[in-house]
Amino acid sequence: MLAAGPLLAPDERLSRALVRSVPDSVTEPLADLGNIPVALPVLLLAMAYAFLRGLRRAVLAAGAAMALVPALVIPLKEWTARPGPLEPWAAGYFPSGHTATAMVAYGCAALLLSPFTRRPWPVAAALVLTGATATGLILRGFHWPLDVLASLLLCVPLLWGVAVSRLRPRSIRRSSG
């Protein structure tokens, strides 16, 4: 169990200052944006659209990224066994699975849709939805701020893989001679 370190006390102080500073009726729906029944359909619709438009490799990468979320998050939760802000008797809060789900689902959806829109709205929507999820989780007291930050950092390589998969391989020029 990780129960010590230089970031633990500031994380707990920040959490105490933020938790329940906004009514639960506002923060709980925000936190719910990271639920699988909410985030996964958004990704599946974007995957279907991108697949039909020819981004097959990127669709596979997005599916793999989403599948890797629990494979990365669950072992870390078990290893750290960090208690929750409002449930000190419970364990498994670090990192935040809801934040990871939101970031990968909405981020991959944005990466799959942005080549077709040629506008920044998919990326902006992904940032807003992921930020709303993270904010709701912290303000509601479901996660410590570092739980959320760890999930965001953990998911960057997954999104990078999807972004790279969208690139078309350069054609190889052959010189005659």
Characterise the protein shown here.
With 177 residues, the chain is mostly helical. Helices cover 70% and strands 0% of the residues. The chain contains 7 helices and no strands. It has helices spanning 8-18, 24-32, 36-52, 56-80, 97-117, 121-140, 145-165. The longest helix has 25 residues, at 56-80. The protein is elongated. The model has no long low-confidence stretch (mean pLDDT 92).
Helix content: over 70%
Number of helices: 7
| Strand-pairing-aware structural class | mainly alpha
Largest β-sheet summary: none
Task: Determine the strand fraction and express it as a percent band.
Answer: under 5%
* Unreliable spans: none
Radius of gyration: 19 Å
- What letter string, H or E per element, gives the SSE order? HHHHHHH
Distance from N terminus to C terminus (CA atoms, Å) equals 65 Å
The 3D shape can be described as elongated
Total beta strand runs:
0
Topology overview:
Elements: H1 8-18, H2 24-32, H3 36-52, H4 56-80, H5 97-117, H6 121-140, H7 145-165
Question: Can you give keywords for this protein?
Answer:
177 residues, elongated, mainly alpha, single chain
